[in-house]
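Hi all, posting the design record for the shared folder.

TITLE: backbone redesign
STEP: 1 of 1
STRUCTURE INPUT:
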């Protein structure tokens, strides 16, 4: 048998001027601090009065359900101090901590009492039924517990099937406790209800106070936060909108993330690729000193990912600088709506609804192209007569800031007065609701340089995690961002082209960090035959509209030989046979085979 040639489509995992000076700014929101209320006696977590008030019914049971808090309290039966359709001292629906959408549920202990809500909808459970939800603890002591409970008798009794303890041990603090002591993300909870198969059940979320110190609900960061409750045999996935970045905006991000992944390697590229207009711009730069400064940066950082709200803010500010002919971080006297005169970066982000804990911004109104703009930010030329670089190098520090997880990039091509020919704004964000994001590009490496370039993006590919709550599709530029539902651990990522079959790869998340995963499609390589006497020549491989056509020749085959067209799906260890070709005819040149394009897989021709 001779194995002779491969078609490979591989996926690589990698892990804020004058006319010559740019501008950078950054800010971190101060942490909220709270002090727990005095210790008191524990209330009974399952008080009879609370149970009797629920008035639950088992009629009209459903098998699938979803509630993300945006619909209000209509399906909730509240327990605790209630006034009308809500709690009397705080609202069960809030927007300070949200996993997805605009709202989430909140439970807190007021006056040492237990608070909770049951879902009025009853559920018909099968052996495959599961409960999913997002959970995040805010200010809560270790004597406060979030519990999920099941009732099979219309709320007369409850069984706890899951619980989470509050994160704050008050004995470790004196006085005020900072919000930095709290979890910075939601965790996805996935619970099987198989033990209740064949029964009709109700579900209850209870915030149980067991005594000692607690936090009163006098801040919107107090309590237990719950979002996107789902019941069913399979989880519904939401589309994640990360925006629609252009190819140039995407290339800026690829340069950013390449630099974050290996700072010294980027310094070497910058030093080696000074040509054209960069020669004059960097004429005063001491590149030896620059490399020494790069060595002091954190060398290997996770990537930042596109965020639609930050992109909108960045684009509007680039438009403002272009239309009103300036460079700076404050909006002009006549900025595009909804921005207002004198707005700073944080104001513009908030106008777009971005909930930031910290931010940074780089602006450059005099870039000539993407590489020029990126080099300007990284080298940070100007401002220092001795070394030709700004002190401190604020743009470079923004790019290499480990706290940033998201970014919006706005590029305007054109000249207006003194600004142009390219205006760029980079808005970096540290969100209050942090989670791991998968980011990268889907691209066809037309020039075989192993890196994304303008014109190589592939749009319309669906990307999802097999255990996730979201899916997204790559922009026309090839860029994508996908939230990962759980925090640390392995995630199987599925890529599906606009037309064709899915491929998969596994990534591992650590410390809730972002992960970079690029999907290269359409590359071709060949191998030398393993056995003499038979040669397979790959003449061409063409891909179009989700299909591929392979043209090949088999030389030196025997009458009894056959050719096997085989595929190893991306992430799999074995090959499957797509087609078997009889080679007894003798003339086995110019043979063709067509099929659905399996991007990320390995296609081979085997003669046996």
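Okay, here is what came back for every position:
SEQUENCE:
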């Amino acid at each position: 048998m001779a194995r002779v040639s491969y078609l490979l489509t591989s996926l690589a995992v990698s892990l804020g001027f004058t006319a010559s000076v740019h501008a950078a700014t950054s800010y971190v929101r101060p942490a909220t601090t709270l002090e727990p209320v005095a210790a008191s006696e524990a209330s009974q977590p399952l008080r009879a009065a609370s149970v009797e008030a629920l008035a639950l019914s088992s009629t009209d049971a459903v098998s699938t359900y979803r509630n993300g808090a945006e619909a209000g309290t209509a399906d909730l039966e509240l327990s605790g101090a209630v006034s009308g359709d809500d709690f009397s001292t705080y609202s069960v629906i809030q927007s300070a901590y949200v996993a997805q959408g605009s709202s989430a549920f909140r439970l807190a202990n007021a006056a040492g009492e237990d608070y909770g809500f049951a879902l009025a909808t009853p559920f018909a459970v099968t052996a495959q039924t599961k409960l999913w939800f997002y959970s995040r603890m805010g200010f809560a002591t270790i004597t406060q517990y979030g519990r999920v409970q099941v009732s099979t008798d219309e709320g007369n009794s409850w069984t706890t099937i899951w619980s989470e303890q509050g994160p704050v041990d008050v004995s470790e603090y004196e006085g005020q406790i900072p919000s930095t002591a709290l979890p910075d993300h939601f965790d996805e909870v996935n619970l099987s209800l198989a033990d209740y198969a064949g029964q009709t059940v109700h579900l209850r979320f209870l915030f149980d106070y067991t005594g000692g110190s607690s936090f009163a609900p006098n801040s919107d960061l107090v309590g237990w936060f719950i979002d996107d409750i789902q019941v069913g045999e399979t989880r519904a996935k939401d589309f994640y909108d990360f925006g629609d970045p252009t190819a140039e905006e995407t290339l800026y991000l690829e340069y950013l993330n390449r630099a974050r992944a290996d700072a010294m390697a980027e310094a070497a590229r910058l030093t080696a690729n000074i040509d054209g207009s960069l020669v004059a711009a960097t004429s005063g730069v001491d590149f030896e000193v620059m490399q020494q400064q790069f060595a002091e940066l954190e060398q290997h950082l996770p990537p930042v990912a596109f965020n639609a709200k930050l992109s909108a803010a960045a684009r509007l500010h680039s438009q403002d600088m272009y239309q009103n002919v300036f460079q700076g971080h404050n909006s002009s006297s006549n900025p595009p709506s909804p921005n207002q005169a004198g707005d700073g970066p944080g104001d513009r982000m908030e106008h777009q609804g971005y909930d930031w804990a910290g931010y940074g911004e780089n602006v450059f109104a005099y870039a000539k192209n993407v590489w020029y703009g990126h080099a300007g930010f990284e080298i940070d030329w100007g401002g220092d007569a001795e070394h030709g670089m700004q002190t401190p190098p604020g743009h470079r520090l923004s790019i290499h800031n480990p706290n940033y997880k998201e970014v919006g990039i706005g590029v305007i091509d054109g000249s207006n007065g003194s600004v142009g020919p390219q205006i760029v704004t980079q808005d970096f964000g540290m969100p209050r609701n942090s989670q791991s994001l998968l980011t990268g590009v889907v691209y066809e490496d037309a020039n075989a340089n192993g890196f994304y370039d303008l014109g190589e993006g592939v749009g319309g590919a669906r990307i999802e995690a097999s255990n996730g709550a979201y899916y997204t599709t790559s922009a026309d530029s090839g860029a994508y961002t996908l939230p990962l539902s759980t925090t640390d651990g392995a995630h199987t990522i599925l890529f599906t082209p606009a037309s064709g079959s899915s491929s998969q790869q596994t990534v591992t998340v650590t410390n809730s960090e972002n992960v970079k995963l690029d999907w290269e499609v359409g590359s071709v390589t060949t191998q030398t035959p393993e056995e003499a006497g038979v040669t397979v020549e790959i003449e061409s491989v063409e891909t179009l509209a989700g299909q591929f056509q392979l043209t090949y020749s088999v030389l030196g085959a025997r009458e009894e030989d056959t050719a096997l067209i085989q595929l190893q799906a991306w992430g799999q260890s074995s090959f499957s046979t797509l087609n078997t070709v009889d080679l007894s005819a003798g003339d086995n040149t110019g043979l063709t085979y067509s099929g659905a394009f399996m991007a990320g897989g390995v296609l081979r021709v085997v003669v046996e």
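COMMENT: The two ends are 5 Å apart (CA to CA).
Let me know if anyone wants the other runs.
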